[in-house]
Structure formats: structure tokens, C-alpha cells
Specification:
Blueprint: H1 13-30, H2 41-44, H3 50-66, H4 91-101, H5 116-128, H6 132-145, H7 154-164, H8 170-184, H9 192-205, H10 209-212, H11 217-225
Helix pairs in contact: 1-3, 3-11, 5-6, 5-7, 8-9, 8-11, 9-11
Length: 230
């Protein structure tokens, strides 16, 4: 039983769909749906974190939709997220576990990073979509630390993950996607989720792994599930 704390873009098809099922299982138990897994560490850590679990669900579904899956089991809109989520395993440990578990799976959308620079490249546009000020602050830090191995960058990884757990700012998300649309060589669209899908499809068709691997592509679809205008 596992709900991963790293971006669902790192999950293979098998584990992405598995995570979606696990989230609903945890949600059901916590809403009084049974005692089977009520004492499991993965269930217990979400007991006072239902709004955050809902957000993880919506991001997981956004990743599913981006890759062409259907979805018919909504969980509602997330409310105010509480601080202090406890990890079963640290994010760096989760990367190591996923790297081992997915050896025989199909490749995930976002390749497993091995350096802090690789990790930052995958998420820098998602950080940018959450505000220029914090983007500039983190980007400046990356200039001096980006080449270190990911295994030695626990604090930097957690800082970036904390930013990604906040909502993007729609106007800045739109600007980021418009810039990526130009990079992909496609006509930009004023609808966020259409832009994101177009970038993903174009990058996939032409084998542009870097463009295809930006985590920001799921933000547009997840934003729509949060009640925002897409």
C-alpha cells in the first residue's frame, strides 16, 4: 500500500494506475469504509491530511489524463492543507525504491533524476508557475549546487517539493505554457489544459524527451479539478 510523495510523472503506467487505486482505498478507510488497512502506516499518515490527499489524487488524475487515460471517480475539491505531513520514506528513498521497482515496467513520463540539476530541470517551469520571486531564489541556489548528486541534496529536493505542493498562479502558468508551446512549435491556445496536452503530444510525437518531461504539464489539468478556470 503506497501513495508516493514524488510527482506522479515519475510513475510507470502500472504504478500510476496503482497509485490512483491506493488513494481511493486510503480515502475509503479514512471516511469510515472499513478497518482492513486502518492501522497501516500509509493510512495513518493521511488521517488528518484529507485535503492534501485530495490534491495528490487530483495531480495523479491529471497525469493520467495527460497520458490519455479516462477517469470517472472524482474525490471533490481539496480544502485547506494542513502542515506536517509525515513520510513513510523520504523523497530520496522513494526515488531509489521507484528506480528499483520500475526496472521491468514501461518508462515513466519523467525520467528518474540522478543529479540535482536534472531534478531542477524537470520542475523549474512548475516552480516558475508558482511565482517569479521564489523561482529566482531557487534558481540562484541551483547555480551553485545543481551539479551535485541527487542523493546528497535532500534539503534542496524537499524545498522544491514543498513549493510544488502549493497551487500554481493561473496567469503565470498560462505564460509558462505559452512559452513551452512556442518551443514545441505549436499554435498557442488560450485554454490551459489544451495547451498542456498539445505540448505533450507534440513532444511525444517528435521524441523530445526534455520537453515531454516538464512536470508543469500536469498543473493545467489539476488546476481545473480544483475549480479554477482552465
Amino acid at each position: 500500500m503506497r501513495v508516493w510523495d514524488v510527482h506522479p510523472g515519475y510513475l510507470s503506467r502500472k504504478r500510476l494506475l496503482g497509485q490512483h487505486a491506493e488513494i481511493h482505498g486510503v480515502w475509503s478507510v479514512l471516511m469510515g469504509g472499513g478497518e482492513g488497512y486502518s492501522h497501516h502506516p500509509e493510512t495513518k499518515r493521511w488521517r488528518n491530511q484529507l485535503p492534501r490527499l485530495c490534491r495528490v489524487h487530483n495531480l495523479t488524475v491529471a497525469e493520467m489524463l495527460l497520458r490519455g487515460f479516462n477517469h470517472h471517480s472524482p474525490m471533490g475539491k481539496p480544502g485547506e492543507v494542513q502542515k506536517g505531513l509525515i513520510y513513510v520514506d523520504s523523497p530520496l528513498r522513494q526515488f531509489a525504491l521507484l528506480r528499483e521497482k520500475q526496472r521491468s515496467d514501461d518508462d515513466p513520463r519523467i525520467p528518474m533524476p540522478r543529479t540535482l540539476k536534472g531534478f531542477w530541470t524537470q520542475h523549474e517551469y512548475a516552480v516558475m508557475a508558482r511565482g517569479q520571486q521564489q523561482y529566482k531564489s531557487i534558481a540562484a541556489e541551483m547555480d551553485s549546487t545543481a551539479h551535485q548528486a541527487l542523493s546528497g541534496a535532500a534539503d534542496q529536493v524537499e524545498h522544491i517539493l514543498a513549493v510544488l505542493r502549493t497551487d500554481p498562479v493561473p496567469p503565470q502558468l498560462r505564460e509558462v505554457l505559452q512559452n513551452l508551446s512556442h518551443e514545441a512549435g505549436i499554435c498557442e491556445n488560450h485554454v490551459l489544459n489544451i495547451m498542456a496536452r498539445g505540448i505533450y503530444m507534440e513532444a511525444t510525437q517528435h521524441g523530445n524527451t526534455l520537453l515531454r518531461s516538464h512536470s508543469v504539464l500536469t498543473d493545467a489539468l489539476a488546476l481545473g479539478m480544483g475549480g479554477e478556470d482552465t
